[in-house]
Amino acid sequence: MVLDIGSGLTFEPVASAGLNAWRRPQRFDWLDQTGAVPIADTELLNLAHHCPIAIHVDGGAPTVVCLLRSELLRASRIGRDGRWLLAYHPLALRTLPFRARNVAGERLVEVSRELAESPEGGDPVSMFTKAGQPSRDYATVLSLLDVMARGRERLADAARLLIAADLLVPLEGPAAGNGLMIVSSELLFELSGARAGALAADGCMPLDLAAACLFSQRWLAEGLIGQRRPVEIETVPVARESLLDHGLQGALDHPLALDDSALFSFEAFAAAGGTDE
Prior knowledge:
The protein is of the alpha+beta class. It has helices at about 15, 30-35, 45, 90-95, 115, 135-165, 185-190, 195-200, 200-215, 265-270, and strands spanning about 10-15, 20, 35-40, 55, 65, 100-105, 105-110, 125, 170, 180-185. It has a five-stranded antiparallel sheet. Strands 1-7-6 form a three-stranded antiparallel sheet. Helix 6 (about 135-165) crosses helix 9. The protein starts with 10 loop residues before the first strand and ends in a 6-residue tail after the last helix.
């Protein structure tokens, strides 16, 4: 199973594509091979009502996705005619045929000519005005790509906390071996109060993600939830402890307290003939 929305499609930078217009995709048959699409924080709770929410862990930063492959779902989200069946379209679909990638710290907007020029797409939409500025429709897409990028990062941070809290179990069956994880209700209920409190970080986003994942499991096909196993994810190297053995090691080892002694002796000051002028 491929988990990249761009799988099977060719994307190129908009700046060099030479397109002045694009067509919005009307058919999404190819999504059944994609398997899942990334989502943003602003659509998390909405999508939980329609698609299973999962976390893709591939050794790097985790990605929160909604599952779309029909064999993973109780009911397909794509009709026989290739049309999207739900009233709500995920941002990843609404921004097609465009996508944004982070390249050397800069946002690179790319377009799939295959989708942009497909005769099965909608009516042509202009990309630029006569003055060379982004048209209203294209500016809206660029804005949604920004929302998508920020939302994905926020959900990735929330997913890291769920991983640290050891709340995830893998998906099995057709999804086995693809790094797809979901929240376990049993592990969540076993959390201590201190660990549960950590899920309230960032406006309770980790807790929202856990709840959305659990709520959306109603849409999963039978027999996909696996057993608890370690999550492998890259760690960031830290400095050797020998480089950190100077100064204070911790507040508990070196307790601090305010000095409540007098700043100076007023009696000695007065005896010396001092005045307050």
